[in-house]
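Ticket 4471: requesting a sanity check on a complex prediction with adenosine-5'-triphosphate. Repro inputs:
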Amino acid sequence: MNKVIEVKNLVREYDSAKGIIKKENVKIQALKGISFDVNKGEIFGLLGQNGAGKTTTIKILTTLLAPTSGEAEVLGYKSFGEEKQLRPLINFIFGGERGLYWRLSARDNLTYFSDLYKVDKKTRQKRIPELLELVGLSDRADEKVETYSKGMKQRLMIARGLVNDPEVIFMDEPTIGLDPVGARDLRKIIRNLSSLGKTIMLTTHYMFEADELCDRIAIINKGELAALDTPMNLKSINSGFSVMEVKVIGVTPDKINKIRSLEGIENVFVSQQELLQVLQIQCSNCSDMTPKVMNILKDNKTLGINIREATLEDAYLNLVGGVTA
Ligand SMILES: Nc1ncnc2c1ncn2[C@@H]1O[C@H](COP(=O)(O)OP(=O)(O)OP(=O)(O)O)[C@@H](O)[C@H]1O
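Returned structure tokens:
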């Protein structure tokens, strides 16, 4: 089977309450009818801002949440209705350190979770040392998890998610909070899993990570699919322009609008970094535009200006809007 995940017109609503004194019941539409397929062996990324609907999608696909309507199938089984058949074939790895027994060693954690998945003794005896090796924990396998670094705990989370040798692995922000080396090691493990034929769906807020790892990326915006393509094709949305990045203090919305209305400027996104504002100015010829932009900002303290190639993050900002003034 080539299509491993099939999602059609998936809708999920949550009941919620609004107001402090007088509570009013409201429905939140977290997913508004999204559709996509994932092929065998793919690393498929789900990107989107906070509250876009990524976790809701993953929870439905991992049988933890029922959809309001629409279809979600994994390996030919309905994630709601055929969860008994599906659960042994998938696993879910979330970032952070939740879900491990800190008083137990890595080996004992993996034995415990193998028991939960009813992995027989013979298979387990072979698989646990292999998993410890895969995530680089063989040397420390018999020490208590509470003595591990964050990166080691996160690598153990990966091993935990593999105890049942799942065909499809769901990962929610697997590298969150890791230092660059720890995150790089974890990405290597993810690529390794993919080369072993596993299908991986992951969410991340790190654009370079999605760019580096994913075969295809779905961008979800407010419960809807904003784009679905390879990182290269998504980046080509930006072909023909570069980005001028200006670090500045105290720039007003009025000045941003002046920059935005200059001929040759495609788009301007603003983000706050402590006291600084960082302007990401997308332009067809940034070198030519620099004096005009600097003229508008002449009364502001400018701390740096840099012209760079457009990245996946710039494409993402164009698709979901991003933070604008
Ligand atoms: N149990 C719940 N009850 C009410 N609303 C919920 C519940 N879970 C999620 N939501 C809402 O559904 C929407 C989508 O949430 P979801 O957690 O899927 O987003 P996300 O893309 O995973 O966000 P993040 O990147 O912050 O994890 C949000 O508006 C959220 O507030």
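Notes from triage: The first strand starts at residue 3 and ends at 18. Leaving this open until the requester confirms.
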